[in-house]
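thought: user wants a sequence for this fold. calling inverse folding tool.
action: design(structure=
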């Protein structure tokens, strides 16, 4: 089954990445099943936001609480690579947990999507959902 990524989520990631440049932007991928409906921006609280990202833990906790209360599921995470490389970095691989969540990377205006698997990241094709 393909992953569906809403046009609104794509636009939200691109806009946040542009606004944060030259720092990394980051946030949460929200939706249901294999459909990402929203890319919620979150503060990058890493002390070196020019080279790394750390999603604000308060935003992550709030999203999980909302999910348990019937809101959208936290399907994964997104961040930008101001260096223009759309693939997981060495730092991304160190941070990965192999939990199967989706990671989206915004670079040079494009978006690549990856699945965080126990053996590393796997490129994940997606269908742009304009509905």
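)
observation: tool returned 131 residues.
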């Amino acid at each position: 089954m393909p992953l569906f990524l809403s046009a609104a989520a794509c636009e939200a990631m691109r806009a946040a990445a542009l606004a944060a440049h030259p720092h990394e932007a980051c946030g949460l991928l929200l939706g249901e099943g294999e459909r990402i409906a929203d890319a919620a921006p979150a503060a990058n609280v890493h002390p070196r936001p020019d080279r790394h990202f750390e999603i604000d833990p308060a935003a992550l906790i709030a999203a999980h609480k909302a999910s348990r209360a019937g809101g959208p599921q936290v399907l994964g995470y997104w961040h930008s690579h101001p260096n223009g490389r759309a693939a997981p970095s060495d730092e991304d691989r160190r941070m990965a947990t192999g939990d199967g969540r989706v990671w989206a990377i915004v670079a040079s205006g494009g978006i690549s999507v990856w699945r965080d698997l126990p053996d590393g990241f796997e490129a994940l094709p997606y269908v742009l959902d304009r509905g």
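thought: summarizing for user.
answer: Here is the designed sequence. The domain at 3-129 is CATH 3.40.140.10 (Cytidine Deaminase; domain 2).
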